Amino acid sequence: MPELPEVENLRMGLAKNILNQKILSVEIRKPKLVSGKGTLRKISQKKKAQFINGVVGEKFIAVERRAKNLIFKLTHEKIIIAHLKMSGQFVYQKKSGQKAVMGGHSIELSETRLPNKHSHIIFKLSNGVLYYNDTRMFGYVLYYQSAKTFEAENHFVMYGLEPLSPKFTAKYFFESLKNKKGKIKAVLMDQKIVTGLGNIYADESLFEAKIRPDRQAFSISKKEAEELHKAIIRIIKRAIKVGGSSVATYRLLDNTRGNYAREHKVYGKNGEMCPNCKKPLTKIIVAGRTTIFCKTCQK
What is the pLDDT of residue 248? Predict the structure, then answer.
């Protein structure tokens, strides 16, 4: 699943291509994707109709991000929220037959055929076509008729602060951790204190702060919390700047891969040598996720 830096770069790419374009028509081939955000979703033809009737004729006026969600703002305060989950992809093609620009998880069929069997939502725009493709269909693309309607649902009520928010201070971070039960990596990934961190950036931040991923969150000292806070901000800023990590099948909207993967110190490096002490890195499982760390450097 893409993490904050990857989604932020996709956001910037989409904004560059679709802002101020009018939505001429929408084809929804899989109503499941617009019916809700849970794992088990009941298909709603009513929500499909509301989506189509609500967005046709409107323009994209902004593309924003909250944690790993994309927020498309339309005219008349209408909103579309999208989450790629494990296998979602946005593709923008200016003209039929022209090379398309793709962002999200790589889908080989999209490189030669558009639309294709994975193209589940198709927005015909005033100057091109925007496709939402998804092989496993875990993602969602939800419509809200107004900002008030969106806010009433509290879509982000369980989310903590953005790591680059001025409110995400070292003091806030330490106070949030000191009574928190659970392993520190699991706490970082559950989005309730700080958002947008997944497997990659949790491993990398903990390594830079020299903290074991299986430490209890409440055991983190004030000084350690300050170091981890500093590491999270530095790594997220750097990853955004170089386009994210783009590991596995993820791509940016210009179809390139992010460059931060070249700077990973521990993620995906089980059995390799620690870049600091030169001893072998160790693999464990935390919160169901493969976790790599250094037994010598991280305490």
Answer: 43
